[in-house]
Amino acid sequence: MATIGNFLIALLLFGLMVFVHELGHFLAARATGIGVKEFSIGFGPALAGFRRGDTRYALRLIPMGGFCRFFGDEEDRDRPDAYDRQKVWKRMITTVSGPLMNGVLAYLAIVVFLMAVGYAYNVPRVEQVAPGSAAETAGVLPGDVVCAVDGEEISWDTTGVRRLIQRLQEDPGSPKVLDLRRGGQQLSLALQPEKTESGYQIGVLLGAEQYRYPLGEALHGGLMGIKNMLVLMVDAIAKMFTTGEGLEETGGPVMILSVMTQSVSQGMDMVLNLVVIISLNLGLINLLPLPALDGGHLVLQLIEWIRGKPISRKYALAIQIVGFSLLMALFLVLTFRDVGRLITG
């Protein structure tokens, strides 16, 4: 039952990312006066829906996508709010707003992660003492805080931990004097670091603290996180198209749901990390200049803006049909491959 529950949560999260993407198109269309014929989450037969004004809202059977359909078909292309009758800048804003909203969702997820989870950093507090080690022999106990080594103060942060380790490696032939705080007491213990394969050690495991960002730091950290991830993702996509690197690891919705289902069982930090990665990828991939993707529509709109007139409706429709067919073929290939991976493990 836990696995089914995790799968349903993963499905809802995936649906949320699709919903946010389509919501970007929807809100931009509303703001620029473009008529929305249908706002749908999922593909296939409609499971539920309702109509408000001229717009139909629907939840469909296959939760692997969604769409925001605008007025402009043959039967309603003469409407004043039809898509093709709007200025090109309005259509460009509507097109780019879907991927942009995925970026907004990723940013908010990073901010929540930094405030709710944060990151762990090492501190000079003893968590465990190895039996028979130099530390145990000297009388070091779990909970002791290392304040100084041979008179040099050790700060309560990762830098202090690094300095503590460096001092233990220096002049290994001589004993070290640790100034410790134990409860309300101060004491000094002398011990001799022991040589191991990884250097001289005293036989303790140091602890860690969790730093949760305040709102201001989290907002700034979120921007830096988005920037760094975009650089990595653009580089990965470029390598995929130029050298083929990463193609074998590429998966479709089935693999995404499988990974998300596993992550749900590992806690909120893993879920938030995955929401950031997948949402940002979804927005970035949709901006690729390929037919049937938002980037493909954007290219046609840029051409129209430069030429001062749109491409022939017949050619534009043919490009979109071919692009959609190729996209569905890729969807099926990735789905079969994902299913094969799940079966073979």
Chart the SSEs and their pairings.
Layout: H1 2-32, E1 36-52, E2 55-70, H2 88-116, E3 119-129, H3 134-138, E4 145-149, E5 152-153, H4 158-169, E6 176-182, E7 185-191, E8 194-196, E9 199-201, E10 204-211, H5 215-242, H6 253-264, H7 268-286, H8 294-307, H9 313-344
Antiparallel strand pairs: 1-2, 3-10, 4-5, 4-6, 6-7, 8-9
Helix pairs in contact: 1-2, 1-6, 1-7, 2-5, 2-7, 2-8, 5-7, 6-7
Please give a quick description of this structure:
53% of the residues lie in helices and 23% in strands. By secondary structure, the protein is an alpha+beta fold.
What descriptive keywords fit this protein?
345 residues, alpha+beta, Pdz3 Domain, four-stranded antiparallel β-sheet, two-stranded antiparallel sheet, 9 helices, 53% helix
Structural notes for this entry:
With 345 residues, this protein is an alpha+beta fold. It has 2 domains: 2-117 and 214-344, no CATH class; 119-211, PDZ domain (Pdz3 Domain, Roll). It has 9 helices and 10 strands. Strands 5-4-6-7 form a 4-stranded antiparallel sheet. The chain has a two-stranded antiparallel sheet with strand order 1-2. The protein has a two-stranded antiparallel ribbon with strand order 3-10. A hairpin with a 2-residue loop joins strand 6 (176-182) and strand 7 (185-191). It starts with a helix and ends with a helix.
Helix content: 40-55%
Number of strands: 10
Uncertain stretches of 5 or more adjacent residues: none
Quote the average pLDDT. Answer: 84
The largest pleated sheet is described as: 4 strands, antiparallel
In sequence order, what are the helices and strands, one letter per element?
HEEHEHEEHEEEEEHHHHH
